[in-house]
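FAQ: What does the model actually see?

It sees only this:
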Amino acid sequence: MARKKSDRRGFTLIELMVVVIILGILVGFIGVRIVGKPEEARRTKARVQMETLETALKLYRLDNGLYPSTEQGLQALVEPPAVGRLPRAWREGGYLEKGKVPKDPWGYEYVYLSPGIHGDFDLTSYGGDGEPGGEGRDEDINNWELD
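And it is asked to produce this:
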């Protein structure tokens, strides 16, 4: 069977332009909302990491009867401490899944203090500037202030 030219259907240039314009408008609206919030995403990531570290510290305490000291630091979660009070039942493989202590989303070390001023231990990220205090992007994130 031979087909006639009129049986071929496709999109016209105008239809394609309308689709491209609609997609452009959608990308513009969505892009502004996503691109405008990288700092909020970093702060959320820091909170999630702190909760993970808190869980690992609590597991360490369950196994060993105490939290790592400030001197031992968070590194005690990935390798047995060699200073201070040594853990009696350090878990083979450590307490963090990836075998390393994460840095905060700005690339700085978390500050760990045990015993803490606000609880058994204090965990802090100094935010974007890596310095205590600050506002906005540079505001500290503290475990005792998390929900």
